[in-house]
Amino acid sequence: MTRCNLVAGAVATGAPLTDAERAHLDGCADCAALVALPRALARTARAADPGPGFSARMTVGAHRRLVVRRRRRIATVAAAAMAAAVMLFVTVRQVQRPAADQRLRPALATATPQAPEQSARARELLQLTRFERAMAPAARWDDIEAPLRSHRALLNLHRHPVTPVGGTP
Questions:
Q1: What is the pLDDT of residues 9-55, one digit of tens each?
Q2: What contacts 24+ positions apart, CB below 8 Å, involve 33-40?
Q3: Alpha carbon distance 37, 43 (integer Å)
């Protein structure tokens, strides 16, 4: 390897020059210019100016990102809480239903075997006696109230008769 290659390698890696390489710099103008190049660049190079309003733009951009992250975090937590609430509701409903059916099974198990027609009637009666089903509304209130409007108007007419103008009732 020539001395020029050794000097170029030392400059490229930033390693200090040995005494033999410094002695070579006195006789070789190319190597002397190569070693002086980083120092010359450091003197002439200026820091890049980001321009007016750079810090304001960066602050606004950072604030916007923080707001977006906060919204996503809140939405994620809300979705997770909603999913947990739904799972809890479904689990509790499934746990409670078998308990109600378990109370009826011993009574049905001890009963004497019946004809299929009688057992179907018994199941239908059992369905009818369930309190939750009996108390649940069977129709929408608007569907019930709509046919009664004409009857209600007739009733109101008889309660408060309309008096003719200028006449007595």
A1: 888 888 888 888 888 888 888 888 888 887 776 666 666 677 788 88
A2: 34/7, 34/8, 35/7, 35/11, 37/11, 38/11
A3: 10
Among all chains, which residue has been given the structure tokens 């390489």? 21
Helix intervals (H) in the chain:
3-13, 19-27, 29-44, 54-110, 116-128, 131-135, 141-145, 149-159
Distance of CA 5 to the CA centre of its chain: 61
Of the candidates 140, 121, 117, the residue with the CA atom closest to the CA atom of residue 129? 121
Domain count, the chain: 1
Residue 53 tokens read as: 């309003």
Count of other CB atoms within 10 angstroms of residue 20 = 10
The answer to whether position 30 is within a domain reads yes
Q: What is the CA radius of gyration of the chain?
A: 47
d(CA 100, CA 78): 33
Q: How far is Cα 37 from Cα 10, in angstroms, rounded to an integer?
A: 13
Determine the structural domain holding residue 15 and report its residue range: 3-44
Gap between the Cα atoms of 21 and 6, Å rounded: 8
Assess if residue 67 is contained within a domain: no
Model pLDDT for residues 65-110, shown as the tens digit of each residue: 999 999 999 999 999 999 999 999 988 877 655 544 555 555 555 5
**Would residue 158 count as lying in a domain?**
no
